[in-house]
Amino acid sequence: MSQRDTIMMEKKRVKDYMTYDVVTVNAHGTVRDVTEAIKKTHHDGFPVVDNAKEVVGYISARDLLFAHPATPIEQVMSRHLIVADPDMSVNDAARVIFRSGIQKLPVVDEDNKLIGIISNADVIRSQIEHVSPDKVFKFIETLKKLYGVEPTLRRGSVPINDLLPTQSKIYEDELEGRMYEIKKGLAEPLIVVRRPGRWILVDGHHRAIAAKRLGIKNLDAYIIEVRENIELGMERTARTLNLHTLDDIKVLDYARHPLVALTHRLVRHG
Known about the structure:
Helix content is 37%, strand content 22%. It is of the alpha/beta class. Pfam families: CBS.
């Protein structure tokens, strides 16, 4: 099996992004119980389970409209429930969520017992700063053409504090997202070039800074090995930008993010 085939098999699964700690309501409860659960959790809906913890329906805030507080949940819940398997790909779950117009998809095991829930927000988060296999191999091809080298690729752990950054600024909002992903074990691998005496960070600056803030010493990465002792163009760029360690990267706040600025301009001239 080729390196490309191996990496392509590393697909994102629902079980990697779903929330395991799910608030549920019992099918034998009442509308009053659901109302109290909404007040307590600020959620807008819940999977409905029976006494055996099997999923039997879903109830949302809109199902409570005009319902008496004493009405049994079974009478107002939706029984036509779409569920996901934990080994389903995130892309397939995304198609179900967005085509059906639902916000949350209960995840069940082979016995139909609830083990988690995946939301549209989880799906979106899974796609942010996605490191695709093509991205890695295109970069390798670029190195071959520019420098006449034959890099090799491996997956491994890299030391955060030894990385040479090649990007001068990152954004606080994206940084917070990467910190959340790292805490949940969902971070994408970095892309790093390893040549004699140096680790060069190609992709994943937000993730690297997030790890540093969290006190993490090493991160998973696609490591592109260049055996030849030659200076790469990105190293010269780093030197021009006065970048030596991750501490040299500037973290910009929300207001300075280019997308936010563009939105503001559109609002002013709209």
